[in-house]
Amino acid sequence: MWFDDDWVNWWTLADGKDLYSYIRTLKPSIVINNRVAKRNLFKKDYDTPEQTHFDKPVDYHWEACYTLNDNWGFKAADHNWKQPEEVYKMLKNINGNGGDFLLNIGPDGTGRVPKESVDILLKVGEMLRAEKQ
Fold first, then answer.
1. pTM to 2 decimals?
2. What are phi and psi of 79, to 5 degrees?
3. 22: exposed, middle or buried (Cβ count in 10 Å: 0-12, 13-18, 19+)
4. What's the Cα-to-Cα distance from 20 to each of 39, 42, 54, 78, 107, rounded to whole Å?
5. pLDDT 10s digit of each residue in the chain, 133 long?
6. Same domain, residue pair 34 and 71
């Protein structure tokens, strides 16, 4: 279960711990990210660093959360796209150090994925296919 609410002031560490415990009573095997509480203080079941990642293995599960440009949602004026080579390197580094790579693509208001996102992802796919040959 992926939460993204720990940044609001009214949600406390105690609130998050209570919700985490309650969800566990409903389904003990469920995986819940650390944003159910205050992520800087709560590390169960996996950590979710944002726009950064660990450069060496850590002793807990984690997922690096990145955007393809500077925004989580679609912004027509945001043209600061990551290069495919950078995305590829991040993927290899994150996975190589035991993390998962969450990469946001921010579709526009009609649900279309920006051409720049498609182009980057296709190029990264080509790079991954080439390494397997």
1. 0.89
2. -115, 20
3. exposed
4. 13, 10, 25, 36, 31
5. 999 978 899 999 999 999 999 999 999 999 999 999 999 899 899 999 999 999 999 999 999 999 999 999 999 999 999 999 999 999 999 999 999 999 999 999 999 999 999 999 999 999 999 998 8
6. no
Task: Please give, one letter per residue, the 3-state secondary structure of 28-39.
Answer: CCCCCEHHHCCC
Domain count, the chain: 2
Tell me: do 89 and 59 sit in the same domain.
yes
Range of the domain at 88: 49-132
Residue 49: DSSP 8-state: -
> Both 40 and 57 in a single domain?
no
| 80-84-81 Cα angle (round to 5) | 10
Judgement on whether residues 68 and 16 belong to the same structural domain of the protein:
no
